[in-house]
Each structure stands twice: as C-alpha cells, then as structure tokens.
Amino acid sequence: MAIKDLSLSAKMTVDGFMNGINKSTVKGPGLEFSQYRSYQPGDDLRALDWKMFARSDRYYIRESEVETNIAIRILIDASASMNHNDGDFTKIDYARYLGASLAYLANLQGDAIGLYVLKNSGIFSMAAKQDYQHLARLFYQLEQINPEGNFTKPIHYKELFAGTQKRELLIFVTDLYQSDEEIIKLLDTLNTLRHEIVVFHVVSRNELDLDFKGYSTFEDLETGETIQIDQEKARQNYKSKLATYLEETRVKMLDRRIFYRTICTDEPLDQALRDFLKQRSKLRI
Asked: What residue stretches are annotated with the DUF58 domain (predicted)?
C-alpha cells in the first residue's frame, strides 16, 4: 500500500496473493465434468450421455461445471470519521486500497463491479459493469473520495435500490461510526433486497489500543465536539467497553446473516481477500 498508484497497487496486491483464481460454479452445460444424474422429462436431450446409455440401457444427463458471473457492489463509507489517521495513514486510505483490490480481483473473475460512495450530501453511484475501462473509472473515483460530514441520510438510499433483481454481492467498507444506529438501519434496509452482504469494519491500531502519543484532547471528526482524556487512566476501561461493543456488533451482524469482519489498518490486505473469496465461493446464482 506504499504504492500511490491505486490500480498498480491493486494489481500487485492481487497478483501476489493469487496463484490461481478460485471461481464459483454451478451445475449446467460446460467443459469440466461434474456428475451424472437420471434423465427427467423436460431435460435438454443434447445433454444425454449416449455412451452411458449404451453401457447401462438407461438415460443419464451429463452435468458439468460452469463459471457464474455476478454483480458486486462495493459500498464505501465517506463520512468524516473515515479521515481518522494512525500516523500518515487514514481509514479512507485503507478503504480505497481494499476496494480497489476487491474490484480488481472481481474483474479477473469476470464479475461486474459497481461502486457506491456514501457521502454526507448523497450517494455517488457507478452501476455494475464488467470491462477494463469501467474498472479504470472505478479506480479513479476511489482516488477522488474526500470524506466529510455525517453518514448519508436515508432520503438518499434510493440509489442503492437501482440494481437488477438478480442476487448481488454487496461489500460495505465502513468504520461503523454512528450516532443513532443509522448504519445498522441501512443494513436492515439492504437485507430486504435478499443480497449477500459483507461488512468490513475498518479500525486503526491507535483506536484499538487508545494509544495517541502526545494527545489529551480528542475531537469528534463528524460533530466537532472535544473531550479531555487521561489515556493511561482510561485505557483499561476503554478497552473493556470497546471489546463489548465489537462483540455486540458481531452478534448483530450474525443475527442478520451478514458476513462481518473487523480489519485493522495495520493488517495486510491478504486476509480480507481470503475472506472475500470464501464468501464468493458460497454464492450460487
């Protein structure tokens, strides 16, 4: 992620991670044999295996594996809290590289990729498409994200319902900073679409450890409110409450059948890509 060119960084990340591309499959006409099954009225006669008929005097359908292509929508939280930094690196930086790597990987798999940036003033949207020029435009839009303000208001959510009726994979990259469960409410709304949802909860190391060297005054990036903290005295209680919050969040996602993963900005992207492929392999469109 030290490479500033987003497309080059995504390519190097994915190419270095992948020795081969794992592709999801369904049963149907294809090249790679999967299994035989008994003929049923209405089956395509072209799928009959006549050699099996000659050996057994029974009709069998030869099934093979084919690749499935889906639409993947990457949702990026662009509220001001994503400007939180650990050193010179912000949460939105990590979200950019994660989104770019996932998009590059999905494009390699032949999937259509869309981008939705949830801003204070509304939602920037790029409908899902599958071609290299579209991927280049997606990289460009990721580079242009400038987090500001609060989380997107529900009045703007209509953009998220503009996809097809086909099941999609929605990947939401967010720090889950919310004042009134607004992000959880959004996920409940998205759940009504019956898509697969993956949430990558981005946190920073100094945020996890309450280790902001040299600081005693903290400012809320979205409201501007400040608070004085003695980090040494507050650390133990803070970590306990944070652990409780993260566990409660995990349970909320589990209850909603949402794949959820906390990912720290000092963590390599490899594990996030593995988690993506794991979820991708479960889809059968």
From this structure: 35-242
CA pair distance 111, 26, nearest whole angstrom: 15
The rounded Cα 260 to chain-centroid distance in angstroms is 10
> For residue 168, what are the β-bridge partners?
71
E strands, 130-225, where? 168-174, 196-203, 217-219
* pLDDT tens by residue, 192-215: 888 889 999 999 999 999 998 877
Tell me: pLDDT of 102 over 50: yes
Q: Between vectors from CA 172 to CA 168 and to CA 177, what angle results, nearest 5°? A: 150
Sign of CA pseudo-dihedral 138, 141, 147, 151: negative
- SS3 readout for 90-132: EHHHHHHHHHHHHHHHHHHCCCEEEEEEEECCEEEEEEEECCH
Domains and CATH numbers, the chain: 6-19+69-280 (3.40.50.410), 25-67 (no CATH)
Question: 184 CB contacts (<8 Å, ≥6 apart)?
Answer: 178, 252
SS3 26: strand
Task: Output 179-184 pairs: Cβ under 8 A, ≥24 positions apart.
Answer: 179/150, 179/222, 179/223, 182/151, 182/154, 183/77, 183/151, 184/252
Whole-prediction pTM: 0.78
- φ/ψ region of 272 (left if φ > 0, alpha if ψ in -120 to 50, else beta) reads alpha
